[in-house]
């Protein structure tokens, strides 16, 4: 945790110096996600996605934050958008399957798990 607190302090200073450098918001969102500060992570991912709406990593991580906040439809929406951008990113299918499972969407869960399994076997990350 200390490592993340130090990283957060450094990135906050960097944002003060260069607030227009959007990648800082992505990185700070990642730190907030690790610190389980999901609302703060969402805020930073939203800022980043305003400038980079096709960022599969930002969509995936915002989906994770939504998942942790039990905002399952929002997480599915972000995971689906991340898949549109990067269709062979198997981890997104796994997380979307989890959200579908929680919502009782068994068939969608199974479809996502099968797709993730096929991609993993094919060597995709």
TrEMBL record:
Q: Which Gene3D superfamilies match?
A: Tetratricopeptide repeat domain
Pfam hit, one: TPR_16
Q: What residue spans do the TPR repeats cover?
A: 22-55, 56-89
Cited SMART domains: TPR
Keywords annotated in UniProt: Repeat, TPR repeat
Instruction: Work out whether the entry's keyword set contains Repeat.
Output: yes
User: What's the protein called, per UniProt?
Assistant: Uncharacterized protein
């Amino acid at each position: 945790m200390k490592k993340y607190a130090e990283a957060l302090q450094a990135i906050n200073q960097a944002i003060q110096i260069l607030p227009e450098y959007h990648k800082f918001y992505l990185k700070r969102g990642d730190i907030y996600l690790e610190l389980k500060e999901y609302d703060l992570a969402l805020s930073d991912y939203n800022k980043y996605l305003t400038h980079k709406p096709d960022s599969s990593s930002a969509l995936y991580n915002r989906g994770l934050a939504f998942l942790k906040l039990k905002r399952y439809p929002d997480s599915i929406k972000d995971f689906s958008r991340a898949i549109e951008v990067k269709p062979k990113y198997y981890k997104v299918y796994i997380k979307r399957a989890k959200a579908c499972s929680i919502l009782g969407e068994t068939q969608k869960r199974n479809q996502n798990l099968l797709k993730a399994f096929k991609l993993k076997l094919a060597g995709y990350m």
